[in-house]
Amino acid sequence: MGSPEENFEKGVELRLEGNEAFKKQDFKQALTLYYNALLHLKAVGGQKQENEFKPKSNEQLVMIYNNMTAVFAKQERWDRVLFYAKKANEIDPKNTKSKFRMGQAHLRMENIELARSLLEEVLEQNPDDGLVKQELHKVQIANKQMDDKEKMIYRAMMSRLAQQEKK
């Protein structure tokens, strides 16, 4: 690892290369480049000139974590999406992209209320965002499916109870 400036520049360069790999749908290469970018950018934080590079480095880290969530979302690896979206959110709690990805992941993992809460928060900040509205619609559908499933379970329970009472 070189100087803080060299590490920072290399981290940015690797992130941009990762973006190109992502555009080509080479997700394995994109993740490798993003991981390497993380290593360089995290090294900046541990050096003497930390205060000089920390804000810029954190900005890059958030971008990389969000890019990684995009890769994992494409692969439908929702536990990883959630993990890296949380990492981005720890650095920048106001970042709507990481909240959106957390909402997406929670929805896919059937944490519907958590998904709704996060997505509504994102929609408040971006009222015209079609993707957020789309995800919130999926939340409504998931809620209805969950309600229907619960009704079937209760019906089956009541039916069994009625049959037992007849005996």
The rough form would be described as elongated
The radius of gyration over CA amounts to 22 Å
Tally of strands: 0
Given helix and strand content, the structural type is mainly alpha
What string, H for helix and E for strand, traces the elements in order? HHHHHHH
| Biggest sheet architecture | none
Number of helices: 7
**Mean of residue pLDDT?**
90
Q: What percent of the residues sit in helical stretches (DSSP H or I)?
A: over 70%
CA(first)-CA(last) distance: 78 Å
- Ranges where pLDDT stays below 50 over 5 or more residues in a row are none
Estimate what percentage of residues fall within beta strands: under 5%
Structure, described:
The protein has 167 residues and is mainly alpha-helical. Helices cover 85% and strands 0% of the residues. The chain contains seven helices and no strands. Helix 1 runs parallel beside helix 3, helix 3 runs parallel beside helix 5 and helix 4 packs antiparallel against helix 5. The N and C termini lie far apart (78 Å).
Give the tags.
elongated; 7 helices; 167 residues; mainly alpha; 85% helix
Topology summary:
Elements: H1 4-23, H2 27-45, H3 50-74, H4 78-91, H5 96-108, H6 112-125, H7 130-166
Describe what is shown at a glance.
The chain has 167 residues and is an all-alpha fold.
